[in-house]
Amino acid sequence: MLYKLIIIGSGPAGYTAGIYAGRAGLNPLLFAGEKSGGQLIYTTMVENWPGAKDGVTGPKLMRDLREQAEKFGTKIIDKKVIKVDFSNRPFEIFTPEVKDAHTSGVYAAGAIIVATGAESIKLNIPGEERLLGRGVATCAVCDALFYRDKKAAVVGGGDAAVEDALALTKFAKEVVLVVRREELRASKIMQQRVENNPKIKILWKSQVTEIMGEDKVEAIKINNAETVKTDGVFLAIGHKPASGIFKGQLDLDEKGYIKVWQTMTSVQGVFAAGDCVDYRYRQAITAAGMGCQAAIDAEKWLENQSQ
Amino acid sequence: MPAIHFTDKDFEEKVIKSTLPVLVDFYADWCGPCQQAGPVIEELAEEYKEKVLIGKVNVDESKNTSGKYGIMSIPTMVVFKDGKEAERVSGFGGKDGVVKLLKKVLGEK
């Protein structure tokens, strides 16, 4: 199937690109992946989305953005993209069902918008993999209720870590925030909430070096020395760009972010937006903004090609 | 066949005493990744209807069952075979992740 535009990704950048490209009459196809909705799926209340003055939950915001993109003619497929070929036009996209150019029904497009976002980083320490789901967790708002009157630890110092710690205080009797540096990277308002919360204790200049426990988490080791008892460990140390499938196809920087000029990548006709590009702002609203820019750039580019 | 809802009341009867292997998705309505997993569980319930019984436990409603099996993270999918836990995986790893779990239990490649 040949499309004018294919969008890869279903976070704020991808869906906003879908809304704009749909309204521009491009009838885009959007690959949402099997876990559609991006990082906001793992949050509760989003308080800084302009217009939602009383806040909106992450999952609700993403459902609304998806429906809005569909309303303007974006066709959404909940499949993941496993491979791309940007070496010739039209560009080709492969999924688990359509694995190579010989399979019938290859997805192809005149222009592409990459909005694959970022994925969370693991600690890669002993105990982490083994105790996943048995106290090691990545979604505090999902799992907070299992920590009623228990102790929980959160690893990280950014907004995500602080939000996780605050979510856990609603149930846990004590929350330890393990911070690598001497300060929090989180926004001022979030920092104040942490400081004002008597249940949160911060361990500065601390790194978790081991997660201990037989069948479930019992303690964490800090800086290869001190052992801190806890019933759970929530990982919120940060994210890396989800750009693996574009290696060798697009120019990436040393950390894997896709290099862009405005929103155009190193391949003419392939655009990128959101957290797979942006290491500086990383907000829902900036991702959405870039998704809009990419859609406008793609539309203009396609128009010039046909002249 | 749609996914079955198991509760504290019928878990023993429908899951533990089942002759078919049973995959149970422990979930909550308000959990984002659980909402992502929901449609996939429904699809697989249909695809695997002859081989595996596929159902869900709402952790808010069936606290005893989720407590008994040490559920500390949602979604968590547990496969029971002959009344005993055979496999479990936490978090939603896409349809591939769940299929992998089912194949492992069924001994398929």
Automatic annotation (TrEMBL), chain B:
Family matches, as SUPFAM superfamilies: Thioredoxin-like (SSF52833)
Site (Contributes to redox potential value): 32-33
Domain Thioredoxin: 1-107
Pfam families: Thioredoxin
Disulfide bonds: 31-34
Active site location: 31 (nucleophile), 34 (nucleophile)
Keyword Acetylation belongs to the record: no
PROSITE patterns xrefs: THIOREDOXIN_2
Transmembrane feature ranges: none
GO molecular function terms attached to this record: protein-disulfide reductase activity
Protein name, per record: Thioredoxin
The species this protein was found in: Candidatus Beckwithbacteria bacterium CG2_30_44_31
